[in-house]
Specification:
Layout: H1 2-13, H2 17-43, E1 52-54, E2 57-59, H3 63-72, H4 88-112, H5 120-138, H6 145-178, H7 182-205, H8 240-259, H9 261-271, H10 273-278, H11 283-310, H12 320-330, H13 335-358, H14 363-390
Antiparallel strand pairs: 1-2
Helix pairs in contact: 1-14, 2-3, 2-14, 3-13, 4-8, 4-11, 4-12, 4-13, 5-6, 5-7, 5-11, 5-12, 6-7, 6-11, 8-9, 8-13, 12-13, 13-14
């Protein structure tokens, strides 16, 4: 039995990109079927004025309507009349996609180095606060308008990257020079980040004109700008420039992993640490560098959360960093696949709100359906990662992504 299981996992590890896409598509179909049955059966235990009557039993929920709202509602119902590309639902989906792409890249970089960075959430929190504080301070000395945008936006993103990178370097150094398990240290540092930033906020950076725990708003010209004519309204809290930056970062990281010596050392350290040491890779330096880069990407996610969505840092930071773990696993830790995985999460998030608005299905059931989709689609890649890390199963040459960016 064990041999059969290891054989199946081995086939997953050696699957080509086409086979992996086919497996993901089949898993998505299976999740839709199972979720549809669950929604339909759950409707039999709900109370409603009208529904489908079968053998004297009334089923209140329509699975077809649920999935219509989940997938098409997230795009603003493109099959209905009057649809336009700048609608609120699509903007929400793309905004979630952008932020989750940064968080997913953060986790993916660490995973590719053989490190389990569970601390992206903390790095995002620290990077976001440092972004807001830096921009608010620098805005005193920078003129407004286009000049202020050109100076403050890059400065804010850089500050987020520095803050997140520094916070990611801490568990990296603890592992490299103290032998501390990065899973434990990053989990604990998430709590430390929340406590420290909350204390700093109440002590120094709280907006005196608000009872909510938040910083003062950054100037409007310091927020991520929108593209004239083709861009979204600033009221929708989404910018195509942010999405474009995320895509450029995906491509840049994929190129770095595939075509640079640093990327090669990072990948080899994650896949074959013994071979990396034999080949002269400085293991401790690579551990710290990988976690620093991973933390910097998490800090960038926090910077865009501040500068694109809210215009200020809020104490109640959403769980983007934890969602980034699932995004990375779903993407097979491939920077190019992170975009597609983040888009699926964005659709599920935005579509879930559409279901809550258009149907009587309870939010808890919507969460279960979304979770089933994520679970079914991510599990093949999870087992594939297990096969590479723990079962000593290697990919066949020439398979995978074909460009070296995946393995």
């Amino acid at each position: 039995m064990r041999d059969r299981i290891e054989g199946l996992i081995g086939r997953l590890v050696r699957a080509s990109i086409v086979e992996r896409v086919a497996i993901a598509a089949a898993a998505l179909v299976a999740a839709v079927v199972v979720g549809g049955v669950l929604v339909f059966v759950s409707g039999g235990f709900a109370s409603c004025a009208s529904g489908l009557d079968l053998a004297g039993w009334t089923f209140c929920y329509n699975p077809m309507q649920v999935y219509y709202e989940l997938f098409l509602g997230a795009l603003g119902h493109p099959l209905e009349g009057g649809w336009h590309v700048h609608n609120f639902s699509l903007a929400t989906t793309l905004r979630e996609t952008t932020l989750l792409a940064f968080a997913g890249l953060s986790v993916a970089v660490a995973f590719r180095a053989g490190l389990f960075n569970i601390g992206t959430q903390g790095q995002l929190v620290v990077g976001g606060l440092l972004t807001a504080v830096t921009v608010l301070f620098a805005a005193r000395f920078v003129p407004g308008g286009a000049v202020g945008t050109l100076v403050l936006v890059p400065l804010g993103v850089l500050a987020g990257a520095v803050g997140g990178g520094f916070y990611g370097a801490i568990p990296g150094a603890l592992k490299a020079y103290g032998g501390a398990n990065e899973v434990i240290t990053t989990i604990m540092l998430n709590f430390v980040a929340v406590g420290v930033t909350s204390t700093l906020l109440s002590w120094r950076f709280q907006d005196p004109e608000s009872a909510n725990p938040q910083t003062r708003a950054v100037p409007e010209y310091a927020e991520i700008p929108t593209i004239p004519v083709i861009g979204y309204s600033p009221r929708l809290d989404f910018s195509l420039l942010a999405l474009g930056f995320a895509v450029a970062l995906m491509v840049g990281l994929a190129w770095m992993l595939a075509r640079t010596s640093f990327g090669y050392e990072l990948r080899v350290s994650g896949v074959q640490p013994e071979a990396a040491r034999y080949g002269g890779v400085a293991e401790k330096r690579m551990t710290v560098a990988s976690m620093t880069l991973s933390g910097a990407l998490g800090g960038i996610a926090g910077a865009f959360w501040v500068l694109m969505q809210h215009g200020r840092w809020l104490e109640n930071v959403p769980s983007l960093g934890f969602d980034g773990i699932a995004v990375s696993i779903l993407a097979g830790n491939n920077p190019l696949g992170v975009g597609a995985a983040a888009f699926l999460f964005g659709v599920l998030s935005s579509g879930g709100r559409s279901i809550n608005t258009a149907t009587d299905v309870p939010p808890e059931l919507v969460g279960v359906v979304s979770g089933l989709i994520i679970l079914f689609v991510a599990m093949p890649e999870f087992f594939r990662m297990i096969g590479r890390q723990f079962l000593d199963v290697d990919e066949e040459p020439g398979r995978g992504t074909g460009g070296g960016a995946d393995e």
